[in-house]
Amino acid sequence: MTINRQILLVSRPKGEATLDNFHLAAPELPELGDGQVLVRNFYLSLDPYMRGRMNDTKSYAPPQPLDAVMVGATVGEVIESRHPDWQPGDAVTAMFGWQEYGISDGSNLRRVDAVRVPMSVYLGAAGMPGVTAWYGLNKIIAPKAGETVAVSAASGAVGSVVGQLAKRMGCRVVGIAGGPQKCAYVTETLGFDACVDYKAGNVYEALRAAAPDGIDGYFENVGGAVFDAVLGNINAHSRIALCGMIAGYDGQPAPLKYPALLLTNRVRLEGFIVTEHLDIWPQALTELTDAIAAGELHYRETMTQGLESAPAAFLGLLKGENFGKQIVRLV
After folding, report:
1. SS3 call for 191
2. Domain at 128-275, CATH class
3. Minimal CA–CA distance to 174: which of 269, 237, 159?
4. How far is CA 67 from CA 8, 52, 214, 235, 312, in A?
5. Among 69, 145, 127, which Cα is nearest to 101's?
6. Could you say which architecture CATH assigns to the domain 6-124+300-329?
7. How far is CA 143 from CA 30, 148, 151, 187, in A?
8. Contact at 8 Å (CB) between 136 and 128?
9. Residue 67: which of 153, 7, 145 has the closest Cα?
């Protein structure tokens, strides 16, 4: 029998998540049944939304069950199939979670081209983070050429795509990131017009200098003090795509200081969950994959090795220790 190592959630965080919330299990894989497919997961995606799922609170999705495999996207290869539509060697993405193998009836698998685009990228710029960026920018912010678009967590998996797509639309793009190295990457590699280092001082004043004509569209990944600084520089009739609030993921409240600015500037603010908009995924994925394959859309990955590294890498992600998309290599 084959051993399938898994990371389980065994307790809920009280405030900040810790390594003690996770447990490494090693059950045997059951025998494959008729109509089933066995996938060897090559890469595991780590994403901020997972922190919210660890809480037993009402949200857009049910809480992550205790003593069960942690939720998460994977990409890998079919190694055995008793299903007519899937053959050994097929590269596929799925939501198998934090484990080395996955068994499926085929309904949750999506075939990908691992020759045209590296396999791991289907967990980042050519996957859910990329589609999240595409939807928030195109369907909520909907910027016009010449407008200024700002994005927080600009060097991350979502923010980096937002800014590059906005530049392709003819916008002035201002990123917000933590540290000079990340800001240099945002401007020099990704092509943003400016980047504000939120660790370096007064974010409000830095944004005012970077966006002298104000901000017309904002893609929010962080919340907290960064959101306050942006609202102080927002233009009338601006649009905000609210994607994440990582500043409050550990349970600490992060109230806005000046919420009246939303009314004063007649701001359109819309929170969204990209899995509720599956109709746009084919178009978004096609455009993103084409741009990556052509070398027109850049990405960066932080890769850790082995399933056992996932909990520590995830906790680091929540503290901004990763650079680009956080991935765990499982092979």
Report:
1. coil
2. alpha beta
3. 159
4. 6, 17, 48, 48, 18
5. 69
6. Alpha-Beta Complex (3.90)
7. 51, 8, 13, 20
8. no
9. 7
Q: How far apart are CA 227 and CA 59, in angstroms?
A: 21
Q: Is 0.85 surpassed by the pTM of this model? A: yes
- DSSP 3-state assignment of 115? coil
> Kindly report the CA angle at 52 between 195 and 286, in degrees rounded to 5?
60
Tokens coding 250: 């550990």
Is residue 14 packed enough to be buried (19+ CB in 10 Å), middle (13-18) or exposed (0-12)?
Answer: exposed
Query: Which among 313, 259, 174 has a CA at the least distance from the CA of 183?
Result: 174
Tokens at residue 239, please? 């649009």
Distance CA 229, CA 207 (A): 8
Name residues whose C-beta falls within 8 Å of residue 212's C-beta, 6 or more positions apart in sequence: none
Q: Distance from first CA to last CA of the chain, Å, rounded?
A: 18
Distance (Å, whole) CA 137 – CA 131: 10
What's the Cα-to-Cα distance from 89 to each of 139, 242, 289, rounded to whole Å? 36, 39, 21
Look up residue 232 and give its two tokens.
Answer: 């102080």
Query: H/E element holding 173?
Result: strand 172-177
Domains of the chain, residue spans: 6-124+300-329, 128-275
Per-residue pLDDT of the chain (331 residues; tens, 9 = 90+): 799 999 999 999 998 999 999 999 999 999 999 999 999 999 999 998 999 899 988 777 889 999 999 999 999 999 999 999 999 999 999 999 999 999 999 999 999 999 999 999 999 999 999 999 999 999 999 999 999 999 999 999 999 999 999 999 999 999 999 999 999 999 999 999 999 999 998 999 999 999 999 999 999 998 889 999 999 999 999 999 999 887 666 667 778 899 999 999 999 999 999 999 999 999 999 999 999 999 999 999 999 999 999 999 999 999 889 999 999 999 9
